[in-house]
Amino acid sequence: MAKAAKKKKMMKKSARVTATTKTGVKAAKAAKKKPAPKKPATRRIDPLNEKHYRALTPMLVVKDMRQAVDFYKNAFGLQARGLMDSPQGLVHAELVLRDSVIMLSPESREQNNLSAGSIGGTPITLYLLVGNVDETFQTAVAAGAGVVMPVMDMCWGDRCGMVTDPEGNKWMLATHKSEPTPQEMEEAMRQMMQQAAAAGA
Question: Which of 101, 105, 142, 185 is 20 to 30 Å apart from 111, CA to CA?
């Protein structure tokens, strides 16, 4: 009898050990199945920054940043997107028209960062396509632009006029009007040169 009781007791203990072992195995499996905490998502950086800029962005140096921003908005319909202000005034500005951006930088003689007006002009002309060149030309002149060339039809199919802004930058305003063939373009160029020669005679 004593042996039977002892055997029974040992069987119960073995059952408890087995149950404990099974519980431990189940807990270990559950821990393995539990997903690891997610790492914070890394933002993908586009080295070309195509969300905000095209391949080429002109930057104009201007004497009066706020006046320049107002002129470009009123004359050409650009919209101010980013203005970086400081106690010394605007230090950077970005203006947008459709898919194009122009940056503005303040003149600084100490850094040899000079505006077109300060160096007596510029070899650069900004070619701006607009829906109605005659209207935009008049709006720009009314806003303070100087007339360089009146609006006229060009041999390449655009109707153009040229102005200077108050900072001395040149703007060729254009509306695309036709698609001439190379032969038509050559003939139109010949006629333009004849007219220019006659006017200069």
Answer: 101
